[in-house]
Please model this.
Amino acid sequence: MKKKILIIGKHSYIASNFKSYLADVHPDWNVDLCGASDGEWETISFSEYNCILFLAAIVHKKEKGINYDIYRRVNCDFPVEVAKKAKEAGVEQFIFLSSMAVFGSKVEKITHKTPPNPDSFYSRSKYEAEQELEKLTDNCFYLAIVRPPMVYGKDCPGNYGRLKKLAQWTFIFPNTKNRRSMIEIGQLCKELCNIVEKNLSGIFHVQDETYINTAQMVKQIREEFGKNTWLISWMNWILVPLTKRNRLFKKVFGNLWYEKDK
Model:
């Protein structure tokens, strides 16, 4: 079935990649990109679209000194406002890009029974948006909530982009045995395409088929630049307590994964 999709957040890394992906796999679909902060979305009639994909957000920043209301307004109130307009216009499906972060920073293994426990402005605002959006659903308005882990891929910004820059200069790296869920941008686009194609609703914990080990990922990144890496294990006894106490160390060396569906 031919689809017409409107993506809110046209400057998003995911938006541009998803549009390119669909141009290859579904050239018959119509995909439009729309600005968020500039108010462009308000000038567009939603009635011609089957699906609205909402990608706009304030992402992770240093939250000290920032008012939570800013996160709430952009990451919660805004998508709810767009969803209400979509429902009134007769749009069938609304896809909201949430985050694995809604489970908080203390959890390691996440199943479909793990309760969200957001502990940052970003994750709290994302989870509140999920709750408000779910109130709008009915038999004619389907909601898909996608909670991806860290996204990586060519020219990817954010945490992966910073790790890639660090890896270029780090020829010695701790040989950690951690386990993390991640998702390559192409795989994320494939998952989003499937949700649209089948008009799915619900909560989706998307990820790559294999888990990532930080040390091996750094080694692979350096190999792309033709560089060797010396992985050492003697530092692990220092990293274990630091990973438990420091959020940055936990992000890099800690465990965080979705249990795979059986």
In short: The chain has a mean pLDDT of 91. The two ends are 30 Å apart (CA to CA).
